[in-house]
């Protein structure tokens, strides 16, 4: 399992290799793209949608693009949208898709005939820890209380999260497994995006929820949701939320998000998009957004990113099999 330090080291290694090979780090492109098409294989309001719209805003602020159009196609952790991106967006220039670890797991769990190897990886951008939250009125004040209920009856705790097989689902399974419980008996309620999952929590329709911190942070700060634990390896500075490990649950997990080009674009077009994303990721505007949203910058491009995607497929498939989700 990757720790925060592992991801930071990989980020540094990937960024160093990229700068050495291309010499383009931190340089905004001389010629702006007229209209960037951004494909988000998830419903509005979730982490991928937030990432896509933040990319749009920063690229505009940097004058790297003149305009952007975001297309949302939600369902099954990207398993519904990916075939459309692969087939209907094939060869379309100036187009990117936002995806990440959730999609890798969802494609495996759904036995999708389409996978990320049919796209062209451009860059890994962010890493984010997961958070377990409960509605404000919940009687559960910490993970000890929630785990006690889980041990009494694993099915009595309903978990709101993203699509089956995604990062949220994996974390729920790992928590159950760490307590000697059968992950397959967990009452996991899959939603098409962070927005619907949040609505279920605010409506007190589920016991708890799991997602990236960025998706729940505003509601936690407003007191409408209570954060019980984060999945990072150690406490996050400035965030008064204990880790799972602190509370006797030997589990840690990080989500990652990146961008991909559709198949069929030329090598020159892929290189242009990669340079655009790299320049954006090294800009102050992007770094400000990372800080504001509690995202970790873990830039990785080129062959190193392609190899990372391959290794993630192997790693996540093994986890899902152990949890009975694949």
Q: Find the structural class using helix and strand composition.
A: alpha/beta
State the order of secondary-structure elements, H for helix, E for strand: HEHEHEHEHEHEHEHEEHHEH
Low-confidence sequence ranges: 1-29
- Helix segment count? 11
Q: In the CATH classification, which architecture of the largest domain applies?
A: 3-Layer(aba) Sandwich
Number of strands: 10
From the 3D structure, determine the CATH topology of the largest domain. Answer: D-Maltodextrin-Binding Protein, domain 2
State the shape.
globular
Give a short overview.
With 326 residues, the protein is α/β, with parallel strands linked by helices.
Structure description:
The protein has helices at residues 4-22, 47-61, 81-88, 101-109, 143-152, 167-178, 194-202, 213-221, 267-281, 284-293, 302-322, and strands at 33-40, 65-72, 95-100, 120-135, 158-161, 187-190, 208-212, 225-230, 254-261, 296-301. Mean pLDDT is 89; it is low at 1-29. By secondary structure, the chain is an alpha/beta fold. Helix 2 links the parallel strand 1 and strand 2. Strands 1, 2, 3, 4, 5, 6, 7, 8, 9 and 10 form a ten-stranded mixed sheet that branches.
């Amino acid at each position: 399992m990757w720790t925060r330090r592992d991801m930071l080291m990989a980020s540094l290694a990937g960024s160093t290799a990229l700068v050495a090979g291309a010499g383009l780090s931190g340089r905004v492109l001389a010629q702006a793209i007229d209209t960037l098409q951004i494909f988000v294989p998830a419903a509005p309001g979730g982490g991928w949608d937030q990432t896509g719209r933040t990319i749009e805003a920063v690229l505009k602020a940097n004058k790297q693009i003149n305009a952007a159009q975001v297309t949302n196609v939600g369902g099954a952790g990207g398993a519904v949208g990916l075939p459309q991106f692969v087939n209907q967006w094939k060869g379309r220039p100036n187009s990117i898709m936002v995806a990440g670890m959730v999609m890798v797991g969802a494609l495996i769990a759904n036995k999708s005939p389409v996978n990320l190897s049919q796209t062209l990886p451009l860059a890994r951008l962010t890493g984010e820890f997961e958070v377990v939250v409960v509605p404000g009125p919940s009687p559960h004040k910490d993970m000890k209380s929630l785990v006690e209920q889980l041990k009494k009856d694993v099915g009595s705790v309903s978990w709101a999260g993203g699509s089956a097989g995604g990062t949220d689902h994996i974390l729920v399974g790992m928590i159950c497994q760490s307590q000697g419980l059968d992950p397959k008996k967990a009452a996991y309620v899959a939603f098409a995006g962070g927005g619907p999952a949040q609505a279920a929590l605010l409506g007190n329709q589920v016991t708890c929820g799991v997602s990236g911190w960025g998706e729940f942070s505003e509601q936690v700060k407003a007191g409408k949701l209570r954060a019980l634990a984060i999945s990072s390896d150690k406490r996050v500075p400035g965030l008064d939320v204990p880790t799972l490990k602190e509370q006797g649950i030997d589990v840690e997990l990080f989500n990652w998000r990146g961008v991909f080009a559709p198949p069929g674009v030329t090598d020159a077009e892929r290189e242009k998009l990669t340079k655009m994303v790299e320049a954006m990721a090294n800009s102050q505007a992007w770094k400000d957004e990372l800080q504001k949203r509690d995202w970790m910058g873990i830039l990785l491009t080129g062959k190193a990113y392609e190899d990372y995607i391959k290794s993630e497929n192997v790693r996540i498939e093994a986890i899902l099999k152990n949890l009975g989700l694949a």
